[in-house]
TrEMBL record:
<keyword id="KW-1133">Transmembrane helix</keyword>
<keyword id="KW-0812">Transmembrane</keyword>
<feature type="transmembrane region" description="Helical">
    <location>
        <begin position="274"/>
        <end position="296"/>
    </location>
</feature>
<feature type="transmembrane region" description="Helical">
    <location>
        <begin position="397"/>
        <end position="417"/>
    </location>
</feature>
<dbReference type="InterPro" id="IPR011701">
    <property type="entry name" value="MFS"/>
</dbReference>
<feature type="transmembrane region" description="Helical">
    <location>
        <begin position="158"/>
        <end position="179"/>
    </location>
</feature>
<feature type="domain" description="Major facilitator superfamily (MFS) profile">
    <location>
        <begin position="238"/>
        <end position="424"/>
    </location>
</feature>
<dbReference type="Pfam" id="PF07690">
    <property type="entry name" value="MFS_1"/>
</dbReference>
<keyword id="KW-0472">Membrane</keyword>
<feature type="transmembrane region" description="Helical">
    <location>
        <begin position="128"/>
        <end position="146"/>
    </location>
</feature>
<feature type="transmembrane region" description="Helical">
    <location>
        <begin position="370"/>
        <end position="390"/>
    </location>
</feature>
<protein>
    <submittedName>
        <fullName>MFS transporter</fullName>
    </submittedName>
</protein>
<feature type="transmembrane region" description="Helical">
    <location>
        <begin position="242"/>
        <end position="262"/>
    </location>
</feature>
<dbReference type="InterPro" id="IPR020846">
    <property type="entry name" value="MFS_dom"/>
</dbReference>
<feature type="transmembrane region" description="Helical">
    <location>
        <begin position="329"/>
        <end position="350"/>
    </location>
</feature>
<feature type="transmembrane region" description="Helical">
    <location>
        <begin position="72"/>
        <end position="101"/>
    </location>
</feature>
<dbReference type="InterPro" id="IPR036259">
    <property type="entry name" value="MFS_trans_sf"/>
</dbReference>
Length: 424
């Protein structure tokens, strides 16, 4: 199962990273104004958030495989619409395409939870982080396909910035095939069956003569497979640790998106070449995913709150370094973007592991879906605000404000809360 999830992450990572590398530049080109440069990435982030809702419901009802396939299929349609928008010079169509393109990130986000479904509690952080790490390969390769994408686009008579989205189409199709054919048995459905068997064994140990309802599959209490956001909110209201996990992920994502989305524009102002911009974004994505197994091991050894606090410190440092970088290419900006990715990895892995650990198996799709919705909305707000701030006050002010949010992540991670329900 883990090998299958790793394979799908590599392929879908290529698809997503290609679009991230040129999304802001294509938005500026089609809209004709820098003020709207962040709208494309914001639409993608917003799409990631809102598309999580139907994907979570599908996952709860029919398992991980159905949820992941639906997210990847929507992303394929989005990439196709972005290509069409570039040809037609239609900014509104581009925004719609980027919104649907966010389905790829929705699928990627849900994949990490699939890795945790059957993991032993003492290795949950490790297993989850290995799948997150797999995105490194595709995500680092993706931005470096900007150059070949330009050449391919010229050959096919397409706008240069749209060429990389051709690689996105291929990546999403191959990831869909891997999930459809190889993710068997379904990890969430299997985890539910194991939990049901454990409950039945425990009941019979206490009440050996109990008569169970055959219609429930041999288990007296029928599980609730509701994956709605309403159920997720109900879980969070009675589980403070679940709320803590969600806040760590959402705030970490807010910082990362705010700085990352406007970095290509900041570099372009300094006349950096498109290939150089792609290289910096690839190093940023390397920071996001390459060290995740170490982050997961740290979570298993020292606990999620400690790693979340570390993430807050790293995000603050990265933002401060970015605020002092000059426009265009600089070593300082490269270091800042790498650290920005590392800090985000700390908040994602620690928050995801904590959330999975403190909710019951049947509650996972709803609460995990809600967590990703909040992450996406935080990123969307950050993307919109980033464009406005850079357009009026500059990149330095944006990065300085992000450092303040990094401190908030540190405070949330340090909070001492007790959960009403602890699982595993």
């Amino acid at each position: 199962m883990v090998r299958t999830l790793v394979g799908s992450q590599i392929l879908s990572g290529v698809g997503m990273a290609c679009g991230i590398a040129v999304g802001a530049l294509l938005a500026e080109d089609l809209s004709g104004t820098e003020a709207l440069a962040g709208v494309g990435t914001t639409a993608q982030v917003l799409g990631t958030a809102l598309l999580t809702i139907p994907v979570a419901r599908a996952t709860a009802a029919r398992g991980r495989r159905v949820g992941l396939r639906s997210g990847l299929a929507v992303a394929f349609v989005g990439a196709a619409l972005v290509l069409l928008a570039a040809v037609l010079r239609s900014f509104p169509l581009f925004v719609v395409g980027m919104f649907l393109f966010g389905g790829g990130t929705t699928a990627n986000n849900q994949t990490r939870y699939a890795a945790a479904d059957l993991a032993a509690p003492v290795h949950r952080g490790r297993d989850l982080s290995v799948v997150v790490w797999a995105t490194t390969i595709g995500s680092v390769v993706g931005p470096n396909l900007v150059g070949p994408g330009k050449a391919l686009a010229r050959t096919l008579g397409l706008p240069e910035l749209a060429g990389t989205f051709l690689f996105s189409l291929v990546g999403f199709v191959l990831a869909w095939v891997v999930v459809d054919r190889l993710l068997r048995p379904d990890p969430l459905i299997t985890a539910r069956a194991l939990d049901a068997a454990d409950r039945e064994d425990a009941r019979r140990a206490v009440e050996p003569d109990v008569v169970v309802d055959p219609a429930s599959g041999g288990v007296a209490d029928v599980p609730n497979h509701d994956g709605s956001m309403r159920r997720g909110l109900a879980v969070v209201r009675r589980n403070p640790r679940a709320l803590q996990a969600m806040l760590v992920m959402a705030l970490g994502h807010l910082v990362m998106v705010s700085v990352m989305v406007m970095t290509p524009i900041h570099m372009q102002h300094g006349h950096a070449e498109l290939e150089v911009i792609g290289f910096v974004i690839s190093v940023h994505i390397l920071g996001m995913f390459a060290l995740s197994p170490l982050v997961g091991a740290a979570v298993d050894r020292w606990g999620a709150p400690s790693v979340a606090m570390t993430g807050g410190v790293v995000l603050t440092l990265a933002s401060l370094l970015a605020s002092r970088s000059q426009a265009g290419w600089s070593g300082l900006l490269l270091v800042a973007l790498f650290l920005l990715g590392v800090g985000w990895s700390c908040t994602l892995v620690s928050g995801s592991t904590l959330l999975t650990s403190v909710v019951a198996t049947d509650e996972r799709p709803a609460t995990q879906g809600l967590a990703d919705v909040l992450m996406g909305l935080a990123g969307a707000v950050g993307g919109v605000a980033a464009g406005v701030v850079v357009g009026s006050l500059g990149y330095s002010v944006l990065a300085s404000g992000s450092a303040v949010v990094g401190v908030v992540v540190l405070v949330v991670g340090a909070s001492r809360v007790r959960s009403a329900v602890t699982v595993g």
